[in-house]
Amino acid sequence: MNWYYAVGREARGPLDDDSFGDLIRAGTVAPDTLIWNETLAGWLPLRSLDRSKSADFAPEDPPPAASAAVPPESIEEFPTAAPASPEPERRTSQPPAARTSEKSPFRFDGRGSDLLLLYLKNLVLTLLTLGIYRFWARVAVYRWVYQHTSFHGARFDYHATGKEKFIGFLKGLLLLSPVVLLLFLLHGLLTSEGVPSELAFILCLYGFFFLMFLLRPLLLVGSLRYNLARTSWSGLRFRFDGRVKECYALYLRDLLFMILTLGFYWSWHHVKVRSFKAHHTLFGGDRFEFRGSGLEFLGLFIGGTMLCYMTFGLFIPWYIAWLTAFQIDNLWFQGKRFKSRLDGLKVLQVLLIGLVVTIGTLGIGLPWAIKNYLEMYVNTIEYTGKLDLDALKGGFDPKASAFVEGIGEAGDALEALAEFFGG
Amino acid sequence: MNRPSESPEGRREERPEERPQSWNGPVDPVLSFPAMLYDGVSPRPRSATAIVESDRLTLLIDGVQGGLDIRPEHIAGESRVRGEVHLEIRSPSDAPSGGFPSLKLVVNDAAFGRALARYLSRSDVRTGAAFRRAVGRIPYWGWLAMAVVVAPAMYFALTQGFVALHGLVSVEEEVALGDAVYQHLLRTFKVCEDAGVQNELQAMVDELAEPHSPYQIRVSVFDAKHMNALALPGGRIVIFAGLLKDSSPEGVMGVLAHEVAHVECRHTLKQILRAMGVAFFMSSMIAGGIEELELAETASEVAGTLVVLKYSRSSEAEADEIAVRKLHEDRRSVAGFIDFFERVDRKHGLGGAEKALLWLSSHPLTARRIAALRSARAGERFEPVPWRMAQEKWNELVRRCPGENDPQGKAAREEALEDPPNERREKR
Fold first, then answer.
1. For the residues B336-342, what does the mean pLDDT come to?
2. What residues of chain B, 152 to 211, have a C-beta less than 8 Å from chain A?
3. Mind listing the pLDDT tens digit for each residue in B372-419?
4. Which of residues 66-85 of B touch A (CB under 8 A)?
5. What are the structural domain ranges in chain A?
6. H-helix or E-strand spanning residue B405
7. How far is Cα B284 from Cα B290, in angstroms, rounded to an integer?
8. Burial class (CB in 10 A: 0-12, 13-18, 19+), A122
């Protein structure tokens, strides 16, 4: 049989069985090397050959079980839903969690120069499209942050698209437009009844604010559902399964408690919302949990703000570290908690350097300052356990859409517009 | 499988026995890259090999029979993450719900990116693909150069464009806007209703207004100590009683000429529109995911305000120029106007510190304005006509609007004396 093998972009051969076998034994033709003979439909790596065939050459490292290569089908069938091999090949795949390291399993490796490029590109395109590109721009920055954040060597990713978000925004605008029209009519009615025009405007504006306030639980759930369905780690998508009804129940009950406690319940509400978000965030089928207490948060808030006032703001970096620790240390996954090693001195250092660099370079250094802050934040998060990869099963929420988030975006845009004219 | 790009030598479909005997290995360049495939089901990536030919991209997955032929329309996204090339591959549209939206292929080799670009440039015939590729090829310095050109150009286009929108606002709408502001002011200030003062000021304004002006200019005196006047859009001019005190009729006429110029040039309306353009530009400058940063927001607001104030100063200078022309047309001297400014300067002058405030002031500094007016005064080649009312009668008249009322309280009054009020719409 005449054998050919590829070296870079060049084909070598033909070779007979014996000399080809020699090359394999010598390692010149490695398991990854592309080979071809008359019986094969196309170029294939050596390892994908049938064991019986390749056994003829007795390679030192027999390729994994795989049947003879068949002509590739047109790819209407992706091997996604049902992988053909029953167990993952440990030899060839690199399990992300295998790496043990004393350092934080989280790592941020984005570069300031890349962020500056992204910013320049976003700036040019946003200006040239009169602002429409900002949906794409935001997605690009989020994606940059996620893709440069890794956990145990595997990267996160953000899969939303600007198109999705823009369409969501347009739909949201369409949904809110009857409301805006109604408020316009109301404004006309009020002024004709003798209410001063300005007062009528304020009434209508506050009516709109109130409506957006009422929509908040819906927007929270919708936005989380969409964005988590578009977030992945190591290819596995996150998922949010909180219900709008449950979120409204939470907000209404907390509103009542807040009125009864003259606002002191706010701290418990903050923690409850966090727990709600975490509990309904699934990864690979497992839930996150947030186990902070409202009392602890209240103490932290009061102590932190008092110290900030007493030290004329010098305490702010330490307060940031406290808040981060509260958020991270109370987060659990697979029965193990996360931990933040952030300390105030480091925050102070990064903030000060960032400020000096940004001002000194008239803003050009801002991407580096942002990069340093992200690096500091991400690289100090620890996970106290070992992730059980085998327990994780991927899933995707096909119904998550950008529509609800778009309502919020449209509401924000309308509010900004109204505030501009009102103020 | 029928692809237009299928070459006649397409090896995969050809039966081996049909191959000519002289054939000696592959014709097309072939590159293979070890890759990792994230399938969305398991967190463990699979090993794979990506084979790139000039018109074909094939993915061989360990443990899976056959190869995947990846066509350009399957590629949902491509990004570079440090040295890695990340390719998001779309699942077929008929995937059952609950299926996985995408596969991710990661190749840690920049050469794969180049090979992929060659493959796509040959095979991707979708509309917009060439454009997207061209945008993708723009280098770092290209974006930098574009930002340097586009940002000032768009700044100019946006501010000028927004100001040009004033043509869409009718005089009636402008009057309605001015009335709304006036109603708002009435909540704080009391009008001095004296008919004698009103008539005298109205007579000055009627003389100063352009003969065919669409604006009906009305003057009101507010009973407050401020030494200031403002022109509202649509033709309302407000004079604070503090300005009338110890004034000459010619000085007040100069101020009114300035305010009438503001009205006729639609300065307030243009300024509101310009502020919108600046705000829009600034929001674009900080767009792109960094808008959530409060620092960026504050910086843009400060910069925006400075820009608006700079334009505000230039419209003040323009109004001064027109005021001089108006006065000269009626053979009135600008001397009274100069006296008025000198009085303001004595009261509010900040000396050296004033220079530092140049950028923060909505009005060109009085010294500069006085200098400009003095040179206009020097050019007066006519016998100036004084106002019809003599100074003594004028003093008597303006005493009817003493400006004793100060609705903003003692503290505010003292502050007003220390600092000229610097509200955006106030025109001295």
1. 85
2. 154, 180, 183-184
3. 889 999 888 888 888 888 888 998 888 888 877 655 544 444 444 444
4. 66-71, 74, 77, 79, 81-82
5. 3-55
6. none
7. 11
8. buried
Asked if B63 and A64 come within 8 Å (Cβ–Cβ), the reply is yes
Q: How far is CA A40 from the centre of its chain?
A: 43
Q: A residues 28-57 near B, CB within 8 Å?
A: 32-34, 36, 38-39, 41-45, 47-48
Same domain as B373, residue B233: yes
Closest CA to B99 of A286, A82, A222: A82
Same domain? B133 vs B171? no
3-state secondary structure of B78: strand
- Smallest CA–CA distance, residue A161 to chain B, in Å, is 10
**What are the pLDDT digits (tens) for A238-264?**
999 999 999 999 999 999 999 999 888
Average pLDDT over all residues of chain B: 77
Asked if ipTM goes beyond 0.85, one says no
pLDDT at B86: 93
**B121 and B171 both lie in a single domain:** no
Please give the helix or strand (H or E) that residue A122 lies within, else none: helix A112-128
Question: What is the spatial distance between Cα A307 and Cα A314, in angstroms, rounded to a whole number?
Answer: 9
Give the largest Cα separation in chain A, rounded.
102
Q: For chain B, what is the domain count?
A: 2
With CB atoms and an 8 Å threshold, state whether B289 touches A73. Answer: no
| pTM for the whole structure | 0.71
Nearest CB neighbour to B43, from listed A96, A117, A366: A96
CA dihedral A269, A271, A274, A280 (to 10 degrees): -90
Q: Do B103 and A64 touch (CB under 8 A)?
A: no
Residues B268 and B205 in one domain: yes
Domain assignment of residue B46, given as a range: 16-137
Residue B115 lies in a domain: yes
Radius of gyration of chain B (CA): 36
Mark yes or no for CB contact B99/A66 under 8 Å.
Answer: no
Distance CA A281, CA A283 (A): 7
Residues in chain A: 423
Q: Which of residues 301-340 of B touch A (CB under 8 A)?
A: none
What is the rounded distance in angstroms from the CA atom of residue A6 to the CA atom of residue A45?
9
